[in-house]
């Protein structure tokens, strides 16, 4: 990767701003502290659990990175449709990429998405005389997304060997579009189950809080002696259940 590409966005990493990191730690720290008080009725236990907030920014960073990469894939699908239409209308490859930027902006005039910026960079590089193959390969190297990589490989090979670019782009956009449609169908199907799992995970905490407020005498043995071990075991089971649910709902296509 050359020096100019190193200054462009790397879509395999996501860096939280100082504000995002601080806000994430404050919110998660307060939540963990509340859980500690709820399960142990002890400030020290709450403080120990609250210390776990130092690992939350890393998890939140991964969530934001996955969202960014998914959004980039969806926008790339739209760009391929626009590019396919431009090539089918008889325009050159270079003009097709240029018009794709305008088509993407027409879909959402106020948006400044990652893909619009990347296609703008592609257009600028071509205006400065850089071959489209090099610019597209650099984008593929930085994105590290399977669909973009496959399209770049096929496009570059076809461009160099003199293949039918219109047909290649049309078929590639159709295949990638079908794959992303399947992903979206799965996400819609799983969305309700995700919500139900969150409700089920929150239910024990709400129930425990309700008992503490309405039947504190009944709950008193839980906060002394063997009660601490029972609380710790219950909390560990809840965490394991959350990780298990998250794992089985992480469906890849």
Give the quaternary arrangement of the chains.
single chain
**Poorly predicted residue ranges:** 1-5
> Which value, in Å, is the CA radius of gyration?
25 Å
Which structural class do you get from the secondary structure elements? mainly alpha
The CATH class of the domain at 70-181 turns out to be Mainly Alpha
What is the percentage of strand-forming residues?
A: under 5%
What is the CATH topology classification name of the domain at 70-181?
A: Receptor-associated Protein
Helix content: over 70%
Biggest sheet, open or closed, and with what strands and sense? none
Termini separation comes to 29 Å
Report the average pLDDT across residues.
84
Main location: membrane
Transmembrane segments: 21-37, 43-60, 199-219, 225-245
Domain Type II secretion system protein GspF: 82-211
Keywords: Cell membrane, Membrane, Transmembrane, Transmembrane helix
Task: Write up this protein.
With 253 residues, the protein is an all-alpha fold. The chain has a domain at 70-181: Up-down Bundle (Receptor-associated Protein). Helix content is 80%, strand content 0%. It has 11 helices and no strands. The longest helix has 50 residues, at 165-214. The radius of gyration is 25 Å and the shape is elongated. Mean pLDDT is 84; it is low at 1-5. This is Type II secretion system F family protein. Residues 82-211 form the Type II secretion system protein GspF domain. One of its GO terms (cellular component) is plasma membrane. It is a multi-pass membrane protein. The chain crosses the membrane at residues 21-37, 43-60, 199-219, 225-245.
């Amino acid at each position: 990767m050359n020096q100019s590409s190193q200054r462009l966005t790397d879509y395999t990493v996501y860096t939280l701003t100082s504000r995002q990191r601080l806000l994430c730690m404050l919110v998660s720290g307060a939540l963990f502290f509340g859980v500690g008080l709820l399960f142990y009725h002890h400030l020290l236990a709450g403080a120990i659990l609250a210390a776990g907030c130092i690992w939350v920014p890393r998890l939140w960073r991964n969530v934001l990175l996955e969202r960014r990469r998914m959004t980039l894939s969806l926008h790339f699908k739209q760009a391929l449709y626009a590019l396919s239409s431009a090539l089918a209308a008889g325009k050159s490859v270079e003009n097709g990429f240029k018009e794709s930027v305008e088509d993407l902006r027409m879909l959402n005039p106020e948006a400044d998405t990652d893909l619009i910026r990347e296609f703008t960079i592609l257009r600028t590089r071509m205006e400065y005389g850089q071959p489209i193959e090099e610019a597209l390969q650099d984008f593929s190297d930085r994105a590290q997304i399977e669909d973009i990589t496959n399209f770049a490989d096929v496009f570059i090979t076809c461009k160099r060997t003199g293949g039918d670019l219109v047909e290649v782009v049309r078929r590639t956009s159709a295949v990638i579009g079908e794959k992303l449609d399947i992903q979206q169908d799965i996400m819609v199907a799983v969305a309700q189950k995700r919500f139900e799992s969150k409700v089920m995970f929150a239910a024990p905490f709400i129930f425990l809080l309700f008992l503490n407020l309405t039947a504190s005498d009944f709950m008193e043995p839980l906060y002394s002696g063997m009660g601490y071990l029972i609380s710790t075991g219950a909390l560990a089971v809840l965490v394991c259940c959350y990780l298990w649910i998250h794992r089985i709902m992480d469906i890849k296509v």
